[in-house]
Write a structure and sequence with these properties.
Blueprint lengths: L3 E3 L22 E3 L26 E3 L9 E3 L73 E9 L3 E6 L7 E8 L4 E5 L7 H13 L1 E4 L2 H4 L6 H4 L6 E10 L11 E4 L21 H4 L13 E6 L28 E3 L13 E4 L2 E8 L25 E3 L1 E3 L9 E8 L6 E9 L12 E8 L9 E8 L6 E3 L3 E3 L12 E8 L2 E6 L2 E7 L8 E9 L16 E12 L11
Parallel strand pairs: 13-16
Antiparallel strand pairs: 1-4, 2-3, 5-6, 5-26, 6-9, 7-8, 7-10, 10-11, 12-28, 14-15, 15-16, 15-28, 17-27, 18-24, 18-28, 19-20, 19-27, 20-21, 21-22, 21-23, 24-25, 25-26
């Protein structure tokens, strides 16, 4: 008998998905732009124009298969079939084979609860919610902060925003009260000697937003995230009050409640989104392991590197912003083998269906062939273009909105090397659609000067009103086998659904986030090998570590039928 997971009346209300209100019903069709206009990695502004001729396809949505009272869990077994009728061909129906995995368990969701409201299609990222309509009262406190709302929720951090208050003098701080009694302060005049920490302080103020808690920047300072930060499974309510230069305090904002995701297998409540199909995929599947749901996806992009050179139909050997822009104080020059014959070095080696990207010190006789920007010192005083390396980007050749992307890779183990694999927008968008998202599937430092050699996952987006880059805390996951990830090949993947992102290593969920600031525009695949940067130390040229290698077995992208066809395909 198939095991049943009985639903309990668990209402997750203002939980992890969405907080912007919308009066529209869930649509019957999913309409996605081919490559809608709208930064790790590049903190630069890209053109916002839409390519000429772009059309918006309408994708038919399958009828819902949502259960009403019980959720059956499929066993990994062969379903019996009736005896064949003489003269007819025998048909064998099989169910997915989960191998040594336990049966999938679908988290209980209250299907009778009202869906969590989603953003409006006319204001998908809350630009109009930043407007304070009330005027300051002379001699009174600041106006009440309006529209406190959830942007993103993860396992041990959440990001939320509110509209700036007005005052007849000056608003100088916001007090963020948490239901356990802890109070954070976002102050206009807060300072920290670290430039990166100060930048985050300024960003909170400029965007009237906060992350509880950004342990990347405030682990043991300012907000003391190491002590005060939430834990997986916590539930907290929040309110915000404004403080002016006379010490007067506003009325508190509306309250929000945040359910921090469990470490693995968090329930996904019903929620609304104008790009969401009606299959309730996230509610009807165990998302803790890719084996439990990949039968609902089909391959839309694949490179197994079976040829003897880079496939020009799938890849550019340059990044979107070209070679005149150097980001993150990086020290390598990415050789564009497709369009840069003057630099006589090919970093891409293919053998036995394995692509190896190799980085070397830049030979003296090639330095004069590099762009002028290479002769300039970077922000950290390090030599630029001191190494030659390689990058692949699928922009203008493949992109998609929503799906699953996976690569099987052996990351570099060399000090100073950063193996990077991520999704990146082609156009950042403009107006209320400005977003410029990026999902870092994995970043791996060959030797981490800041801690352990874990696999890192991050999410970035552009603030719709200020244009500032807003980044999640850098999430990390330690190898449960006690080895270094660079010791052997591993698969690194990400599931991207409307308002939901889940990261996987070797098919197992390691991190997730959800909320209305999740990317909703076409993104392409990028992978490369950094050698020396603001994060990775300069490799030792005399240490016998060259060539530095990053190996890739395959890169694949998959989509469900509800979204297949919304992008550019080779």
């Amino acid at each position: 008998m198939k095991p049943l997971v009985r639903l309990s009346a668990v209402s997750l209300v203002v939980a992890s998905l969405g907080a912007c209100s919308s009066g529209s019903d869930t649509p019957q069709t999913v309409v996605l732009p081919n490559d809608a206009p709208g930064t790790q990695n590049p903190v630069i502004n890209m053109p916002g124009a839409v390519p000429p001729g772009t059309q918006t396809p309408v994708v038919n949505v399958p009828e819902t298969d949502t259960p009403t009272t019980e959720v059956p869990v499929t066993e990994p077994a062969v379903t019996p079939t009736p005896d064949p009728v003489e003269g007819e061909e025998e048909v064998v129906v099989t169910t997915p084979d989960y191998g040594d995995l336990p049966d999938p368990v679908i988290p209980a969701v209250d299907l009778l609860a009202a869906p969590v409201p989603g953003p409006s299609a006319s204001d998908p990222f809350g630009s109009l919610l930043e407007v304070e309509a009330d005027e300051a009262v002379a001699g009174g406190p600041p106006t009440q902060p309006k529209n406190l709302r959830i942007d993103l929720v993860s396992n041990d951090w959440a990001e939320f925003s509110w509209a700036a208050s007005k005052d007849d003098g000056e608003v100088v701080a916001y007090r963020i009260s948490r239901s356990d009694g802890h109070v954070y302060v976002v102050g206009r005049d807060q300072t920290d000697p670290s430039s990166s920490t100060q930048a985050e302080i300024n960003k909170f103020w400029n965007t009237t937003s906060f992350i509880d808690c950004n342990y990347t920047r405030f682990f043991d300072k300012v907000h003391d995230c190491g002590v005060n930060g939430p834990k997986a499974g916590d539930i907290f309510s929040y309110e915000v009050a404004a403080v002016d230069n006379e010490g007067k305090v506003s009325a508190p904002s509306n309250s929000i409640t945040i359910n921090y995701h469990a470490l693995k297998g968090a329930a996904v409540p019903l929620y609304e989104d104008f790009y969401l199909d009606e299959s309730r995929f996230a509610q009807n599947h165990d998302l803790t392991n890719t084996a439990y749901f990949m039968d609902k996806f089909e391959v839309v992009f694949e490179d197994d590197f079976n040829g003897d050179s880079i496939d020009n139909r799938r890849w550019n050997t340059s990044l979107l912003w070209g070679d005149a822009t150097i980001i993150n104080a990086e020290q390598q020059y990415f050789v564009n083998t497709q369009k840069d014959p003057a630099v006589d070095y090919n970093p891409f080696k293919i053998a036995n269906s394995i692509l190896t990207i190799e980085a070397i010190p830049t030979p003296a006789d090639m330095q004069s062939q590099l762009p002028e920007v290479c002769a300039q010192p970077n922000a950290l005083g390090k030599d630029q273009c001191a190494f030659l390396s390689g990058a692949l980007s699928s922009h203008d050749k493949f992109n998609m909105t929503y799906g699953y992307v996976e690569g099987r890779m052996k990351t570099s183990n060399t000090a100073g090397a950063l193996s990077s694999f991520y999704l990146y927008h082609r156009y950042p968008g403009e107006g209320v659609n400005l977003h410029g998202p990026e999902i870092d599937i994995v970043e791996y430092l060959g030797e981490n000067p800041f801690g352990d050699e874990d696999a890192f996952q991050t999410y970035h987006f552009t603030d719709v009103n200020t244009g500032e880059l807003r980044s999640a805390p850098t999430m990390n996951f330690e190898n449960p086998e006690g080895e270094l990830y660079s010791d052997k090949f591993h698969t690194y993947g990400v599931l991207w659904e409307p308002q939901l992102v889940i990261w996987y290593i070797d098919g197992v969920e390691v991190k997730r986030l959800s909320g209305p600031q999740v990317a909703r525009q076409g993104m392409n695949i990028v992978t490369y090998l950094v050698t020396g940067s603001g994060w990775a130390p300069t490799p030792d040229i005399e240490g016998g570590v060259f060539p530095i290698q990053y190996e890739i077995d395959y890169i694949r992208a998959y989509q469900r039928s509800a979204y297949n066809g919304n992008g550019i395909y080779p």
